[in-house]
Amino acid sequence: MSRPLEGITVLDMSRVLAGPWAGQLLADLGARVIKIEHPERGDDTRGWGPPWLAEDDEVERVAAYYLCANRGKQSLAIDIASEGGQAMIRRLAKGADIVLENFKVGGLAKYRLDYASLKVENPGLIGCSITGFGQDGPYAHRAGYDFMIQAMGGLMSIGGEPDGMPMKTGVAITDVMTGLYATIGVLAALHERSRTGQGRYVDVALLDVQVAALANQALNALVSGNSPERHGNAHPNIVPYQAFACSDGHLVLTVGNDSQFARLAELMGHPEWARDPDYATNAARVGNRDVLVPLIQAIFRTRGRDQWLADLEARGIPAGPINTVAEVFDDPQVKHRGMQCTLKRDGLEVPQVSSPLRFDGETALSDLAPPRLGQDSDAILAEMGLSGEEIERLRREGIVR
Q1: The whole model's pTM is what?
Q2: Can you give the residue ranges of every domain in the chain?
Q3: H helix and E strand count, the chain
Q4: Cα–Cα–Cα angle for 131, 146, 47, nearest 5°?
Q5: Cys-Cys crosslink for 312: which of 286, 302, 316, 319, Cβ 3.0 to 4.6 Å?
Q6: How many CB atoms lie within 10 A of CB 113?
Q7: Of 56-65, 75-84, 95-104, 386-395, where does mean pLDDT reach its minimum?
Q8: Is the pLDDT of residue 276 over 90?
Q9: Which long-range contacts (CB under 8 A, 24 or more apart) does 46-53 make?
Q10: What is the dotted CATH code of the domain comprising 241-322?
């Protein structure tokens, strides 16, 4: 199957998660993605283990963290602090469509590798800078990390139990969302370029993304004038919409409308709840959650989780188990959709989580495993016209790996 971005070349000069996540998504969509890495240490996440893909001395040891965001890329290990390395990056950018980077504000300008410099030679180039706080403002000079941004951007204030410590999410979700927003931005710029022939500069900040992703909680605050409180596993605007304990485990119940609540009330032996003005509407249930939720909880404790889930499913009441990550990949629906897959590299089987995007029934997934550091340096440099002797000289000088 042909993929939507075939023929597009991306220079991925980003590290860690947000930028690489965008680069991996573009690779899954068919773009050629050349990952620019430091010749000695590579992407920081190569060392963020354990766990490791391989412990064998004959094979480069690489952290599982790195493997989550670098599928589908070629690795060019090159020292951009050297004049020779800078010259080669400029040559690559001249023929590229998109450049992704997450250097500090102004960090690439001293090498003349910033977007303004690169666009002089390639007016159609699309640049995307991912930073903690954006290209301007009082915090623009600061480094930004997901955990810190979850705190500053309000997400932690609404996570955790009401009487406990504010909590971050278990995944660097701001980085992931920033990668998605970055991808949307460059795809929009790519579409516009088809009409104008001109590239665009996309400025994406982790803090901006986190604030935007507060969604209903942001509007709860802006409309009411009050900051939302922590509700643990409950929902601020919907009841019952939370986790409940059963006799042998927990489930999540997500009643999204009044008809679903009526079916729940009947299942729990209290059909009168659906007619009670204190519970009949969602607004009433939210106002009376302190009374209603304990009643529901007491009934859930009388039977096992799987019994309840079967009965809820039979009545069309949305609910699900709280799975461990291992249980997720053993789930029949997850298996059916092929969300766990394996790519091969150097005889190793590299586990991957598949792309959730499908086009005409086919998953948009690159067949290239995350690369070894500098795996493609020779091939890319030769493609640029460098001879074997020139490449070896650059290697001896420490400019490439």
Answers
A1: 0.94
A2: 9-213+337-396, 241-322
A3: 16, 13
A4: 95
A5: 319
A6: 22
A7: 56-65
A8: yes
A9: 46/373, 53/348, 53/350
A10: 3.30.1540.10
Rounded Cα gap, residues 75 and 77, in angstroms: 6
- Token couple for 97: 């469509």
State phi, psi for 235 to the nearest 5 degrees.
Answer: -105, 140
In this structure, how many other beta carbons lie within 10 angstroms of the beta carbon of residue 368?
19
CATH number, span 9-213+337-396:
3.40.50.10540
Can you give the pLDDT at residue 345? Answer: 87
Contact present, 244 and 296 (Cβ < 8 Å): yes
Q: Which helix (H) or strand (E) holds 36?
A: strand 32-37
Tell me: the pLDDT tens digits for 309-332? 999 999 999 999 999 999 999 999
Cβ neighbours, 10 Å, residue 332? 7
Task: Check residue 56 and give its pLDDT.
Answer: 58
Q: How far is CA 222 from CA 105, 214, 216, 227, 337, in A?
A: 31, 11, 10, 8, 39
The residues carrying an active-site annotation are: 175
Q: Please state, in angstroms and rounded to a whole number, the distance separating the CA atoms of residues 305 and 312.
A: 10
Buried b (16+ CB within 10 A) or exposed e, 206-221: bbbbbeebbeebeebe
Q: Nearest CA to 96 among 22, 181, 20, 186?
A: 186
Which tokens hold the place of 65?
Answer: 């963290």
pLDDT tens-digit profile of 187-208? 999 999 999 999 999 999 999 9
Whether 241-322 and 9-213+337-396 are alike in CATH topology: the answer is: no
In 13-63, alpha helices (H): 18-28
Mean pLDDT of 30-43: 96
Q: Yes or no: say if 100 and 22 are a contact pair by the CB < 8 Å rule.
A: yes
Is the distance from CB of 186 to CB of 125 less than 8 angstroms?
A: no
Q: What is the pLDDT of residues 208-257, one digit of tens each?
A: 999 999 999 999 999 999 999 999 999 999 999 999 999 999 999 999 99
pLDDT cut 70: percent of the chain above it: 99
Which of 283, 289, 292, 241 has the alpha carbon at shortest distance from 265?
292
The encoded tokens of residue 40 equal 């000695």
